[in-house]
Specification:
It is built from 10 helices and 56 strands. The model is unreliable at 1-19 (pLDDT under 50). The strands form 13 sheets. It has a 22-stranded antiparallel barrel. Strands 10-15-16-13-14 form a 5-stranded mixed beta sheet. A hairpin with a 2-residue loop joins β22 and β23. It is mainly β.
Length: 989
């Protein structure tokens, strides 16, 4: 009986507990526009784990264990609000937005600042504004999004390398690549062993924001690695509140965006006859551009979770990305995992942040250059198949590219882990010590192989090039930060020390002569009949740095930022081991002044001015140290043995392979910037205007010794007085309509004008880009010329075809001869201006966004046309375009000479991406208890491009550099770009 009474008492207790629960419901809207706010975190104060989030219409229902309490409402971009409740109450809650973008937090070097306190030129792009579609890396996310930043894909290959130029090219040999900093870790991508873009290892869906540090004030805190600018990537972090789960899935289909207008079969037959050529007619009508491309299918799956409490937050994700290119055997597969944790303790004085990204990248690449050449030049009358098998009897004894595709492979597997842990402790109020320990470990294995093959007309020997690369990057940093507010004065002082060590090891083996036994060469290395070559290298670089920064503000009106960094690099000689990089910037919040404080029109007006210096240490390791070898050739030995009959019998002598260069100095970029930030009409219209002047000096270059006795053929030195100057103007504008209406829109864009010029060069020309093949190998296409932009095209000026059927060029110096002295500067590969604009529309649950970008004032050298689209090729039954028949009297033997005949306008306007989306309320399909939001979308990428360029695409650079100086604007059988349609589903739980 006692047991029965106990059970009754327990049941009554449970019933009373359930009856004690109350249900609080309501709707959350924005304070200014009175529109529903989805995704708001709602929880009973003191119980964040039992919270809920508002649905798409701003509605919420929460169960409370107490009859009376306080609900907490929080959401990014809005002020947190606490609302009391009593019983089963229905609440109408309005959240006030943060005052404006001035309160937006911007990530800077070794910290963050409110936008209103920033004195440098920083472009910031949040995840909601990234470019949409099939995206492989961070550069694609921000193309066209930041004024003064030109992102150019090297080709249309999935995850292709990029030229990212911030405020003009400012170096000769170190390229244009900026420094990437991910969650406080400075990357080194110089030796990862990945043939495609090394930044492909980061899942774009894991990125929360990207900041571009453009002027020296913003980037000087990174000193010797910031001459090309700095891109700071911040991955997504957790926030307190209920766990949020997000699942996104996309499927994309890519096709060849544009065809080169080569002859059809009938046009080809008429064309060969018109030039009195030899027609090899296979009787077919083949479009080789169709036959050698495909519809690439790309799929992406990403699952993320985030949440936390007041003390502990987390964010985790898993992603799978599989991208197919439009050329066969062209794939990029990425498997990523990310975990970001943050833990507070000891009354929030102790904080630990942990970030981990792990990636496996599998990249398959075709022999794109050969494939594209086949697509454009193969005889269109040749049949692809005969009796269902690849045709083995093609014109000019060419191996059917369907067969060569199956024989060639270039496969890379890269495993990379990027992790850092950052414990910090606030000793006294405002004084915080932080230690940052990070590691970036990358291991790559690359196999480039050709399978053995034999037919009546073609034979290939099996070959294998095996390359193993490891890159180990370790970072140790110690910083002290002190924040002090004393009346109208505010100070933030940062002092720090950093040590970074990078080790790169590589092994390279070349084999030839594999048996044709159905086993791939990479799986039977021991069966090779010949080891052609073997090599290995090991490089170790160290960078020790000391840095400091002062931020001072008076009454929120007058701002001062001063930084200094000292970098010591093992790359430089003992006489100039350290470089020093200072900067200073001033800011004036004019709207804080009394005469504007009450203005209803001008909401923000800030004037900025800065000066600073950054450096470049991108030189090969060990070049400051002498190096020797043994030799018994030429004058390196002398006959001590009278009986010796040839050099092989002479003793070896010791000779230099590299001279010591202890006096090499750092390249220095000195930049001045003046900028104006403004927002008007209740922050509806906002923008920035910047003027910059950037001068690069102490330029490092490898040159030939001028001394008559040359112990080595080349050596490194700083070129005296030589400078690269970039100056220009950047303008960005954004306008947003009233978001409280059913229909709203935003529109904006940016444009930047940059003038680039090389001054005080001691050389007539430093060749950067040279021709290839056809007897033209090494002929100058573009180079560095005094008082001209980098990437200037330097060539003969084509004026037509003479009576003899041969090229005619302008005699520019009037000496009656056509020689190298008649070459002219015929334009530059660098654009005079770059621009972008966007349009976003929203109507109830529908939204549409379109992003355009373009460039103007640049040239492209169509190396494809020079190599293949000529009369001689057509006469020998190779396909061409109508360029080959442009001049009726041109001789078939006319040479392909580098000249303005093949120089074209590179300006373009592109619809980069457009997205149509619909937010489906889970209520409509009865899933409101399970899901918070369902989003359906369709995105088009590269939908059209307006250009005069006759090649596949004007956004290209596949030219070959000569020496170590980067080339620009040369199109040599580039991997063509695709047009992609992407269907997406995103579900929030």
């Amino acid at each position: 009986m006692k047991k029965i009474y106990a059970l009754l008492i327990l049941a009554l207790g449970c019933m009373s507990y359930s009856y004690a629960q109350v249900s609080v419901s309501g709707v959350v809207v924005s304070d200014a526009e009175k529109i529903p706010v989805p995704g708001v975190s709602v929880y009973v104060k003191g119980e964040p784990k039992a919270g809920v989030t508002t649905d798409f219409d701003g509605n919420f229902v929460i169960k409370a264990k107490i009859n009376q309490g306080v609900l907490v409402f929080s959401y990014v971009g809005f002020q947190t609000k606490e609302v009391p409740f009593t019983g089963n109450q229905k609440l109408n809650v309005s959240l006030a937005e943060e005052v404006s973008s001035l309160n937006e937090v911007v990530v800077v070097g070794y910290g963050s600042q409110k936008r209103s306190d920033v004195t440098g030129a920083i472009g910031s792009v949040k995840s909601e504004n990234f470019n949409k579609g099939v995206v492989a890396n961070a550069g694609q996310l921000i193309q066209g999004k930041v004024a003064g930043v030109n992102v150019v894909a090297a080709s249309g290959e999935p995850g292709a390398n990029q030229d990212i130029i911030i405020r003009g090219a400012g170096s000769l040999r170190s390229g244009t690549t900026p420094l990437y900093v991910v969650d406080g870790f400075a990357l080194d991508n110089s030796g990862t062993g990945v043939a495609s873009n090394p930044m492909n290892f980061i899942n774009p869906q894991d990125i929360e924001s990207i900041e571009v540090l453009k002027d020296a004030s913003a980037s000087a805190i990174y000193g010797s690695r910031a001459a090309n600018g700095v891109i700071v990537i911040t991955t997504k972090k957790g926030a307190k509140g209920q766990t949020k789960i997000n699942l996104s899935m996309t499927t994309g289909m890519s096709t060849l965006a544009n065809k080169v207008d080569v002859f059809s079969a009938d046009e080809f037959r008429r064309g060969v006859a018109a030039v009195n050529g030899t027609l090899i007619d296979g009787g077919a009508n083949t479009d080789w551009q169709d036959e050698l491309t495909r519809t690439g299918v790309s799929q992406n799956l990403n699952l993320s979770m985030s949440g936390g409490t007041d003390k502990s937050t987390y964010s985790a994700s898993l992603g799978v990305d599989d991208q197919q290119g439009v050329l066969k055997n062209s794939d990029l597969k990425r498997y990523t995992g990310r975990l970001n944790l943050n833990q507070k303790a000891l009354n929030d004085k102790f904080n630990v942040a942990f970030n981990l990204t792990a990636t496996k990248l599998e990249n398959s690449r075709p022999d794109a250059r050969a494939l594209v050449q086949n697509m454009l030049t193969m005889n269109p009358t040749d049949a692809v198949y005969v009796n269902g098998q690849p045709n083995l009897n093609l014109s000019n004894d060419i191996l059917n590219p369907l067969i060569s595709q199956s024989l060639y492979s270039d496969e890379t597997t890269n495993n990379r882990i990027l992790a850092n842990i950052s414990p910090s402790y606030e000793f006294v109020k405002g004084l915080t010590y932080k230690f940052n320990l990070g590691v970036d470990y990358s291991m790559s294995e690359r196999d480039i192989q050709v399978l053995p093959y034999s037919s009546a007309t073609n034979t290939t020997l099996g070959t294998l090039n095996n390359i193993s690369t490891s890159n180990n990057n370790i970072l140790y940093e110690n910083t002290l930060t002190y924040n002090l507010n004393a009346g109208a004065h505010s100070f933030t002082v940062l002092a720090g020390q950093s040590y970074q060590k990078i080790q790169v090891n590589q092994k390279n083996y070349n084999f030839r002569g594999f048996p044709d036994n159905g086993v791939e060469p990479k799986n039977q290395i021991g069966a090779a009949s010949e080891l052609l070559s073997k090599s290995s290298s090991a490089v170790e670089n160290e960078l020790q740095s000391f840095f400091g920064r002062l931020n001072y503000g008076y009454d929120n009106k007058y701002l001062l930022t001063a930084t200094m960094r000292a970098d010591g690099s093992s790359k430089f000689g003992e006489n100039n081991r350290y470089g020093y990089f200072p900067s200073v910037a001033l800011g004036w919040n004019i709207t804080k002044e009394d005469f504007l404080n009450d203005s209803e029109t001008i909401n923000n007006l800030k004037l900025r001015a800065s000066w600073g210096q950054t450096g470049s240490q991108e030189i090969p390791s060990k070049i400051t140290k002498a190096s020797y070898t043994e030799s018994n050739s030429g004058n390196n030995t002398y006959p001590l043995d009278p009986s010796a009959v040839d050099l092989g019998s002479y003793p070896y002598g010791t000779i230099f392979t590299r001279l010591a260069s202890p006096d090499i100095q750092w390249e220095v970029s000195t930049q001045t910037n003046v900028g104006l930030d403004f927002s008007l009409f209740n922050n509806r219209l906002s923008g920035t205007v910047d003027y910059f002047n950037k001068v690069s000096s102490k330029l490092l270059l490898q040159i030939a010794p001028t001394d008559p006795i040359q112990p080595v053929p080349m050596y490194y030195t700083n070129i005296p007085n030589m400078e690269i100057k970039n100056n220009g103007i950047e303008v960005a504008l954004d306008y947003s309509s009233d978001k409280s209406r059913d229909f709203s829109y935003s529109i904006g864009g940016n444009v930047s004008f940059t003038k680039n010029r090389v001054e005080n060069s001691a050389y007539k020309i430093l060749t950067t880009g040279g021709a290839q093949g056809g007897g033209q190998s090494g002929a100058t296409i573009n180079g560095i010329i005094n008082n001209q932009p980098i990437g200037s095209f330097y060539m003969l000026d084509f004026v037509g075809i003479g009576a003899d059927g041969l090229n005619q060029f302008a005699d520019t110096n009037g000496d009656g001869q056509i020689l190298d002295d008649d070459r002219i500067v015929a334009g530059s590969a660098l654009p005079d201006y770059i621009y972008a604009f966007y349009l976003n529309l929203r109507y109830k649950n529908f939204d549409f966004g379109a992003n355009f970008n373009g460039v103007g004032g640049n040239k492209i050298y169509n190396h494809v046309a020079m190599t293949s689209f000529n009369r001689g090729s057509l006469a020998n039954s190779f396909n061409t375009t109508d360029r080959a028949t442009q001049y009726l009297n041109e001789a078939s033997t006319n040479s392909n000479t580098v000249s303005t005949r093949y120089l074209e306008d590179g300006s373009f306007l592109r619809l980069n991406n457009a997205t149509l989306g619909y937010n489906l309320s889970p209520k409509l399909i009865g899933l409101s208890d399970v899901m918070d939001n369902i989003r359906l979308s369709v995105t088009g990428q590269n939908l059209f491009v307006i250009t005069k360029y006759s090649g596949y695409d004007p956004e290209i650079n596949t030219g070959s550099s000569l020496g170590e100086i980067q080339s620009f604007g040369i199109d040599y059988f580039s991997y063509p770009r695709s047009r992609t349609i992407v269907f997406g589903l995103n579900v929030a739980f």
